[in-house]
From TrEMBL:
Keywords: Membrane, Mitochondrion, Transmembrane, Transmembrane helix. It comes from Isidoides armata (Coral). It catalyses: a ubiquinone + NADH + 5 H(+)(in) = a ubiquinol + NAD(+) + 4 H(+)(out). PANTHER family: NADH-UBIQUINONE OXIDOREDUCTASE CHAIN 4. GO terms for molecular function: NADH dehydrogenase (ubiquinone) activity; NADH dehydrogenase activity; ubiquinone binding. It is an enzyme of class 7 (translocase). The chain crosses the membrane at residues 6-25, 37-59, 127-152. Its EC number is 7.1.1.2. The gene is nad4. Belongs to the complex I subunit 4 family. This is NADH-ubiquinone oxidoreductase chain 4.
Amino acid sequence: ASIFLMVAHGVVSPALFIAVTLLYERHHTRLVRYYRGVVMTMPLFSIVFMVFTLANIAVPLSCNFVGEFLSLVAAFSTSTSLGVLTSTSMVIAAAYSLYLYNRICFGQLSPYLIFSRDINRREFNGQLPLIVAIVLLGIVPYPLIELIRVCLPRFM
């Protein structure tokens, strides 16, 4: 479970960092308070950022869902209190991610973003493999799980 979650984290976290970098390249600030209403000027970016945010909160059919579900099963089988603590941290992380997405993409358009441009084809194609990996590992996790199951005893 933990190895699968590390692989999923290795896909989703770079995707979110790339999304933040795309915003930074256009506006030269990482302060969240300057971003509001991005969906009005950057609709394609908002969709891609939504996919990455939903993967980060582990919605079904995303790679993080499989990893977090397996981790929850392992945590609850070890200790109920550990499972409750793990579940609570997942809910808090999901709330923060949704708040961040809502703050950046929705609301009245910030005056700082009036001349913003959406992502171009090159930027989208750079993110496409991450989107495919997020969805593919969420829909068909068994090849990776089997690879982990076969290889793990060799390292233990």
